Amino acid sequence: MTLEQKIQQDLKEAMKSGDRFKVDTLRGLIAQIKDERIKLRPKELEEKDVLAVLQRAVKRRKEAISLYQQGNRQDLVDKEQKELEIIQQYLPEQMSKDEVLKLIEQAIAEVQAQSIKDMGKVMGSVMKKVQGRADGKEVQQLVRERLTQMSE
Prior knowledge:
The chain contains seven helices and no strands.
């Protein structure tokens, strides 16, 4: 069963159970997936494309949570948090910081990075390997820290 089919199935179950919040969240996701399908025409929508849609949705929720916290809007923080939890159920399990650090070390060796100037090469290599299992901002921060240590 594809990720998109799983979301469709869960939407039907949420409708039957009367979980209005989950229905609204999943309908929004399905709409975003359809938009992506239209954008990619004539190419077929692949699993990695659906995963990218989910990752963008997660990123949007995290940014919104941060902004709502700054504005002291706990009601909206809670709403976004609930949506985030629903969406994250469909993402692959996230990698630990140690696993990401191992991949960074491997990437640095592969591209023979010497300094922070090689950050783009290292990031490209690492992001191909993590593919949705780690947050890009966190990976970027870890790569930056590691390359800065090398330069010192």
